[in-house]
Amino acid sequence: MIEFSAPDYLTALPEMFLATVSLVLLMVGVFVGNRSTKLLTWLSVVAMGAAFIMVLVGSHAPSTTFFGMFVSDSFSIFMKCLVLIGAAVTLIMGMGYVKRESMNRFEFPVLILIATLGMLLMISANDLIALYVGLELQSLSLYIVAAFRRESIRSSEAGLKYFVLGALSSGMLLYGCSMIYGFTGFTGFHEIAAVIGHGGGDAHGVAPIGILIGLVFIAAALAFKVSAVPFHMWTPDVYEGAPTPVTAFFAAAPKIAAMALFLRVLLGPFHELVEQWQQIIIFISIASMVLGAFAAIGQRNIKRLIAYSSIGHIGYAMVGLSAGTPDGVRGVLVYLAIYMVMSLGTFACILAMRRRGQMVERIEDLAGLSKTNPMIALALAVFMFSMAGIPPMAGFFGKLYVFLAAIEEGLYALAVIGVLTSAVGAFYYIRIVKVMYFDKPTEGFDKPMGAEISSVLAVTGFVTLFFFVYPTPVIEGAQAAAALLFP
Amino acid sequence: MIIETIVFYVLAVVTVAAGVMVIASRNPVQSVLFLILAFFNASGLFVLLGAEFLAMILIIVYVGAVAVLFLFVVMMLDINFSELRAGFLQYLPIGAIVGIILLAELILVFATGAVDIHVPEVVAVAMPAPDEVSNTRALGNILYTRYAYLFQGAGFILLVAMIGAIVLTHRQRVDVRRQKIADQVARDPKAAITLKDVKPGEEGSWKSD
Fold first, then answer.
1. Which of A47, A413, B33, B84 has a CA that sits 20 to 30 A from residue B145's CA?
2. Which residues of chain B fall below pLDDT 70?
3. How crowded is residue A214: how many other Cβ atoms within 10 Å of its Cβ?
């Protein structure tokens, strides 16, 4: 008989709680039917809030459970907090849309809850198989919610495209994992790190080619999940086609979880191979920044524009990762936190773009918004300035930290390209402000926009505008989380 | 020993022959049946290797689910397979060229030793098969203990797949008549049935002619 002792369940308490709640809510939905959607949405938000508290009060000391497959430490706590906030806020602000646009089915909040659970599992993964299970749980739920408006051709197309390309990237990930397993003999991150660090390389200190091939495949699959160039092709179509609350969710939560996975995998098991993966990350970073800046210029649809902008933002975050230092990782984490707040606010504005009961999403629909809806115009202007990186908005500090880390590591070319592409990006962000403030007003948007959207707008706008007054909690949390990845 | 060898060759020959028949047979239903034959023989080979769990899985999953699904597809969809196969031969030359190039490249890489794929010595050695437990039991021992976390995670993935299939395809149709058992039970026999005393030969009674 194999010796067996029960794992420490307390470490994974938030995940187990969310899993149980999602099953209970599913049962409630099945028996009560679609009129329970609103109740289930609120209950999901409450469950995410409860999980948030559990994550925060849980032990900050690194601990593993489930035989080393699941890890909880200050890095996972920071990332889980971000993901839970992002998911809960998108659920709240999407409520009006879900009700109006024939998406009123009880499976929606349940699927979002399960996707969030998958993200938490990804963030806490400490084993290649656990990584894959978490990633697949998240992705599968996201494919479904992307196609949730099945009577809309664009939504179905978005879901199908996302599914096909996502399945391809999962295949690449699995292939990479199998190479790593074959050449190290382990699936656990600690063991892989030990093998690679402990004479894994040959006489010249070069790791076996099999491990490098595996690393490249895993990096490619993760780059797909964060939609970094050259694996970004799905992003604009999926962002445009998916229902707007789903797009908001895509922009906020899954990107953060996938970036957490990226950081954990590259800095955990493959820490010794930093010189090998640094080139990949630098290339991805430059390509994403350049494409995000130039491809967004010609966009007329605001969701497409935000898609390209999110590709660019991932590029900026990658600048910090390519530095490969604790400061760089701190920069990535701060960047992600700020990016999440900005994109939640931007999507709250997009969700308020409704004219005579119809959603509109062209940029020219925003013309003269400062006259018709001055509050939305002001908030959107704040977010656009912040995304462009203009001080003293929050976005400026995000960019500041990653560029500083890159310069400290001597990656001057990377920092210069980053600054240049931000200047190009500022053009299309500020163009939106120009359209809102200086173009001839058209018909205003429907009023009222709904209490949930206006409160999300107020909070995110406030945070973006006044981040510089009290940035300590975010910076310190990021500092502690980043330090953990560099033992 | 000799019996084992004979059994192996019988199973192997039947597997290969059935595999050939899968692609050679003109009738798609026969193809699927040959596929099932190939699966059964392959699982026999697994039993010979001592991997009885894989053998069972092969039969349950591939024969029980996949092959039956194929059969359903073949029977329910009106696909003309001979038409599909009509242009097949014209792709043969280009396919052969691709295959030959790939083969040459592989030989180039591995036979000449251009790439040294060395495995580090610290790699974990595969665990020796325990003598005292069958491999089904060994798998069961760790699947629900050491790998319980992954097992539950995989279960959740399957649940999401099921929810997704229902969400994306299930439609509430209004034009079908549904059986509502509550309505049926709640019906009052007095209101639903009227008894009429019909005399033979009167209007409304059954007549033979």
1. A47
2. 81-82, 84-86, 113-131, 201-209
3. 25
Interchain proximity B120–A199, CB inside 8 Å:
yes
User: Does residue A304 sit in helix, strand or coil?
Assistant: helix
Three-state DSSP class for residue A298: coil
Question: How many structural domains comprise chain A?
Answer: 1
- For residue A64, the cross-strand partners are A71
Above 0.95 for ipTM, yes or no?
no
Question: What stretches of A353-484 adopt beta strand conformation (E)?
Answer: 354-355, 358-359
CB atoms within 10 A of CB B177: 5
Nearest to A136 among B122, B146, B157 (CB): B157
Question: Helices A128-146 and B148-169, interaxial angle, to 10°?
Answer: 10
Are A344 and A252 contacting, i.e. CB atoms less than 8 angstroms apart?
yes
**Distance of alpha carbon A414 from alpha carbon A187, whole angstroms:** 34
Residue of A356, A350, A269 lying closest to A307 (CA atoms): A350
Helix axes A107-123, A13-32, angle to 10 degrees: 170
Residue A324 resides in a domain: yes
Q: Which residue of B has its CA nearest to A184?
A: B123
Residue A407 has pLDDT above 90, yes or no: yes
Task: Return the pLDDT at A1.
Answer: 47
Instruction: Report, in angstroms and rounded to the nearest whole number, the Rg of chain A calculated over CA atoms.
Output: 22
**Three-state DSSP state, A389:** coil
Average pLDDT over residues A188-208: 71
Q: What is the pLDDT of residues B161-193, one digit of tens each?
A: 999 999 998 887 778 888 888 888 888 888 888
CB contact under 8 A, B156 and A137: yes
Helix (H, G, I), strand (E, B) or coil at A64: strand
Contact A210 B121 (CB under 8 A): no
Contacts of A141 in chain B (CB under 8 A): 160, 164
CB spacing of B153 vs A130 below 8 angstroms: yes
Chain A interface disruption, residue of B132, B135, B141, B149, most A CBs within 10 A: B149
Range of the domain at A337: 273-487
In a domain, A254, yes or no: no
Q: Closest CB to A198: pick one of B122, B154, B163.
A: B122
What predicted TM-score, i.e. pTM, was given to this entire model?
0.88
**A322, A376, A373, A326: which is closest to A347 by C-alpha?**
A376
**Is the Cβ pair B122, A2 closer than 8 Å?**
no
Selected residue of B156, B170, B171 to mutate for chain A interface (largest A Cβ count, 10 A): B156
Tokens of A151: 């009577």
Number of inter-chain CB pairs under 8 A, A vs B: 101
Tell which of B127, B132, B167, B171 to mutate to test the A interface (max A CBs under 10 Å). B167
> What CA dihedral angle connects A187, A190, A196 and A199, to 10 degrees?
-120
